From TrEMBL:
Organism, as annotated: Streptomyces johnsoniae
Pfam families on file: tRNA_edit
Domain YbaK/aminoacyl-tRNA synthetase-associated: 51-173
InterPro entries in the record: YbaK/aa-tRNA-synt-asso_dom_sf, YbaK/aa-tRNA-synth-assoc-dom
Designated name of the protein: YbaK/EbsC family protein
Lineage: Bacteria, Bacillati, Actinomycetota, Actinomycetes, Kitasatosporales
Length: 184
């Protein structure tokens, strides 16, 4: 099997790589019933120390920056209640936390969620957070540019490995919403 882009040595269908995914992501891949077939989800095995976008692009292909997306978890507070949301933006854009995210969540203040909270509640490794397999009830805010990609590279729930899937598959995630202006 060959990935739609990049220079990867170990490429396989994600459904055949569940042993390389963290529990919540493996469960999401195994139970996938979206409009895009799980057969179109690809796992690429990569070095954990090269998980950060700049290192990843340098190691696996310069063109990957244009097809990579980051999943960032944001915490918003209102009336003493904290709300968490996952935000998926192209790797080359900055997340508009205090504008688009804050307004969309209807909170007075929003910021990047604490690392411990993200790891504990998602069951994923920091630096490998992905929109697949997130806790029920978390909104998944999607930048339109990510959804529009024929294939997008996202985390796999661990620092080792990435998933490649059609951008439109993200629309089938529980709590998924497209937010114009999410990335800038």
């Amino acid at each position: 099997m060959q990935a739609p882009f990049g220079d990867f040595d170990d490429v396989r269908p994600a459904a055949e790589a569940v042993d390389l995914l963290c529990g919540p992501v493996a469960a999401a891949v195994s139970a996938w019933r979206g409009s895009v077939s799980v057969d179109q989800f690809v796992h690429v095995d990569t070095a954990a120390e090269k998980a950060d976008t700049a290192d990843f692009v340098a190691a696996y292909g310069a063109g990957l920056a244009a097809v990579s997306a980051n999943c960032v978890v944001v915490a918003g507070r209102r009336a003493g209640e904290t709300r968490l949301a996952a935000c998926v933006v192209p790797a080359g854009l900055r997340l508009d936390v205090n504008g688009a995210v804050r307004r969309h969540l209807g909170v007075r203040k929003a910021s990047f969620a604490p690392r411990e909270t993200v790891v504990d509640e998602s069951g994923m490794e920091y630096g490998g957070i992905t929109p697949l397999g997130l806790p029920a009830g978390w909104p998944v805010l999607l930048d339109p540019a990510v959804v529009g990609l024929p294939h997008v590279l996202v985390g796999s729930g661990t620092r080792r490995g990435k998933l490649i899937l059609p951008g439109k598959a993200l629309l089938d995630l529980p709590g998924a919403e497209v937010v114009v202006g999410l990335g800038r």
